[in-house]
Amino acid sequence: xxxxxxxxxxxxxxxxxxxxxxxxxxxxxxxxxxxxxxxxxxxxxxxxxxxxxxxxxxxxxxxxxxxxxxxxxxxxxxxxxxxxxxxxxxxxxxxxxxxxxxxxxxxxxxxxxxxxxxxxxxxxxxxxxxxxxxxxxxxxxxxxxxxxxxxxxxxxxxxxxxxxxxxxxxxxxxxxxxxxxxxxxxxxxxxxxxxxxxxxxxxxxxxxxxxxxxxxxxxxxxxxxxxxxxxxxxxxxxxxxxxxxxxxxxxxxxxxxxxxxxxxxxxxxxxxxxxxxxxxxxxxxxxxxxxxxxxxxxxxxxxxxxxxxxx
Length: 311
Description:
Elements: H1 2-8, H2 14-27, H3 31-36, H4 39-46, H5 53-69, H6 77-80, H7 88-99, H8 108-117, H9 127-140, H10 146-160, H11 178-181, E1 198-206, E2 208-209, E3 212-217, E4 228-229, E5 232-234, E6 247-255, E7 259-267, H12 270-276, E8 281-284, H13 295-305
Parallel strand pairs: 1-7
Antiparallel strand pairs: 1-5, 2-3, 3-4, 3-8, 6-7
């Protein structure tokens, strides 16, 4: 259960992730249950939570545990790192919280506390910087009470040493904090450079006929892998002359971590859609919950057709 919670809480607030935790715990109470599930079942339950690679990796990890650990969850830090989707932070968190092993966790909250307390200006998004921060976190770790220590560091960053307007007056470390004393806290932690955000235009063609939608399944190598969407043409200026007369419904923006999506929805008759998108399949309205949808498609169906597509 600790593994499940750590995966869900990557890039997700507790309030948002809690209901998903309960759904997964109820549907897959054991590693064996999750490993035996189909990927589509996993994606259906994950629908709306975003960062779907987490769900796919969790499914792969369950199968890996069955195949390589006889169905028993690995307990050592090094073994945990071999699981799909498990990096240093997640491995340290599971090792510490589940097995009380002496491994220091290093998440965004801990980065912030350490960089401000020690006035430590290393970049947190470089390998060198992360190595130095991990060394510092390991040196500070209370090895006899690692779980309590890690939880305290994370809570200190989440509740007191916040990114903006930190509650320094309530901080038990205020008197010895270098960042506070030198008034450098607002510049810490430091990140090197900025990741370029890619802009994409997605043009969806919607057909609802006889209580059925025409949908395509996405491929493996892009966002929303193996999820379902309306027939799509991508590009800012797409030639639709061969499609005949189309009607624009609406356009919305949708932001991902490193992509800004401009999403446009059009209506097109089914005979033309099937002609130009032969791989598209008809999906009955009552079967939509069995087809995982990206949040942008899910939201469109909710707003335009008052459909609840969540599992």
